[in-house]
Amino acid sequence: MARFTLPRDIYHGKGALEELKNLKGKKAIVVVGGGSMKRFGFLDRVEANLKEAGLEVKLFEGVEPDPSVDTVLKGAEVMRDFEPDWIVAIGGGSPIDAAKAMWTFYEYPDVTFEDLCIPFNFPSLRTKAKFCAIPSTSGTATEVTAFSVITDYKKGIKYPLADFNITPDVAIVDPDLAETMPQKLTAFTGMDALTHAIEAYVSTLHCDYTDPLALHAIKMIHNDLIDSYNGDMEARARMHNAQCLAGMAFSNALLGIVHSMAHKTGAAYSGGHIVHGCANAMYLPKVIKFNSKNSDGLKRYGEIARFIGLKGNTDEELVDALIAEIRSMNEKLHIPTCIKEYEGGIIDEAEFKEKLTSVAELAVGDACTGSNPRPITPAEMEKLLVCCYYDKEVDF
Prior knowledge:
alpha/beta; six-stranded parallel β-sheet; two-stranded antiparallel sheet
């Protein structure tokens, strides 16, 4: 038996933000990140719509990129004081992910973060509040997923929390918000979405319910991401839908080792963070080559390549065509080919080598590794990470 879980309601298209006027409740806390949602007027619109619905509103602002354990615990404390019956999170993946974790600590103050790090080990939610997510970026799809990524800065590790309990009740996918994304963010979030869809399609947990979502999302992203990056707002609106479809697929089929590596390299190095979507884009071609040594992986990557119109007489040729196409997309999006080139070389080579064994072990233990089509050992993960650092050919 398998499970397929989505939000109860997904409102999409221009003007969907107005649906907040129909929420039923007494109090809503709005969780938001930096200043962009306020600067572009969306935070004021959210607050006004909620007040029109008759809710008392409190703001929790300033959730940082790659939200921390400390921010989550602080937000949960504010929620316990305010006692909202709606949690509304608006912005990129960071405030929505943070709000999901805050929600859990709000309803269960005695739960520990260590408990939540065990996949699908959350207590039953909705004892105090329901959750509404409003994404402003076209990538993470956290508005429809059972996932939240929280960073422990003391340990330098990103934790992917996973449980169907934290799938939002309501998702509002309004492309007006995505029009505000800067070009670089459009590139990184778009490749994050493509990685979600590809990993969901080849996952060992893929099924008849997730496959159509994944394939259609891949085709949409392949068709629209470059145009969206170059300022075509109709393509930007389609990308906002495509990333949501990719999220529906991976929330139920799960992911693979592209994400395992991105989670564990993202905050590991003192030179700076590797932005999640950029990490996925750099690692994806290498992982496809690694996974194509598995017969099921080879077949399904071939199916993806055919579906988006790539040419090849064999599955091996189709895999090579898919890798070349992704590399071409990265080039057009000005995404580096490897960690060594990232942001002009901020990830020190000596530090990368020093931490290689520990990062590899953590990546193998990541929650996303179990559904990867090809099993991987810590030694193989070390070799794969080296290929991702130097842009070396994967031949094992």
